[in-house]
Each structure stands twice: as structure tokens, then as C-alpha cells.
């Protein structure tokens, strides 16, 4: 079983509170029942039972959805600095708002680490199985602990990993039909009207500009991974401008 951590620097109001914007079934926080509208703070552990689901909105607009039988510990939420959480077990889907240059999103596990700059992806952690990471929009750069391996996972691709990682491979969203978690995620449009769980690939009409963007992304990833004490997955978004 793998523990996951998610870290984000968010453009948010002067409040580190997170809000449970949707709760269904048996969901607890601080060992007490959680209801829609309840505030969550760093240090809280959110746990869903069988049939339980919850959506958490983070300052800045990032949305986190947890499936049933999942456990997530919220480690930190500092506006303009860091949001972090640890997924111990279960399913997590995230749509991370477009971060500023100084902002960071990081996911740490027992085996690897991740970060996002305006990305949609999900992670599944199950007992006696490899972790699963699928990217629907943007890109996620994953590095194993002690730099054993590293991969950049783009939209439409997945990575399965433990201490070692299988090669990234493409996936089709049609294969997720019947997956209770993703069926629920797709049934709830985001506030901006977006349809979750659909693959959105970056398609540049300017090959030279796309090359510059990719080089900038790689440089950003290398710099952050170098500064990370533990293996991480970094998910850089697509810059809106290239110098």
C-alpha cells in the first residue's frame, strides 16, 4: 500500500480553510461526521466508508474528489505558498487551477512524487497493487524515490508504479466505463462548466513554439525535482506565453 501526498501553492484568499462542497454517504473528518459546507483545516484526516464520496474545494479553485473507501490527510494549506495532503488509500481525482510561477503542486508517495500547474489527473492507491496515475489534461512528471526512475506523463497516458515503474502507456477513457469512481466524477460538471474525465491534449499549431514550451517545462521540472528531498511527481501546465 502506498501513501500519497499532494502539495500546491495556491492563489487564494487570506484563509487556509478548505470546504467540503459535496458529501454523500458516510464521510468523516477528525473522527466526526462531515457535512457539505463544513470547513477543513490542515491536520484533518478525511475518510470515506463504502458508498461515501466527498468533494473538497481548496482556496484558489482547485477541486479534489475522493471516492469511497478512501483516506486523505490534509497536511498544509498556506495561501500563495503550499497546500499538501497525503492519500493513504483509495481514489483521488484533482483539477488543479492554473498556478502562478511561484506556486507549486506536489504529490508524494511511498514510491514517487508529483506536482501540477493547471492539470487534471487521478491517482488510485490500493492494497497489494501498483499505484495508478492517469492524466486527462496537462502533464505530470514522476520521479521515483532515490531517483530510481523518472517519467513525464502527458494527457491520455497512465503510469503504474511501486518501487519501480512500468513504462507509461496510453489509455482510453472508454475503458473506465463502469468504474464507480470515475462515473461519479464525470456526472458532476465543474463550476466552470467543464466535463471531468475527458482527455484534452495540448495541440500547438506552431511547432517551434511547442518546442520552446516543452523545453521550458523540462527546465522547470528539473529545477523543482533537484530541490526536492524525496521522490516527487511534478505536473507542469502549459505556459500561456513563451519568451
Verbal overview:
The structure is a single chain. The chain is 12% helix and 40% strand. The chain has helices at residues 180-187, 207-226; strands at residues 4-8, 18-24, 27-29, 32-33, 39-40, 45-48, 53-57, 63-66, 71-78, 82-95, 105-109, 112-116, 120-125, 131-137, 139-144, 150-154, 157-161, 169-170, 233-235. With 243 residues, it is mainly beta. It is globular, with a radius of gyration of 17 Å. It has a single domain (4-235), classed as Jelly Rolls, CATH 2.60.120.
Q: Can you count the beta strands? A: 19
Under CATH, the topology can be stated as Jelly Rolls
Spatial shape: globular
Please give the count of helices: 2
Radius of gyration: 17 Å
Order of helices and strands: EEEEEEEEEEEEEEEEEEHHE
Name of the top-level CATH class: Mainly Beta
Percent range for β-strand residues: 35-45%
Mean pLDDT: 80
In short:
By secondary structure, the protein is mostly beta strands.
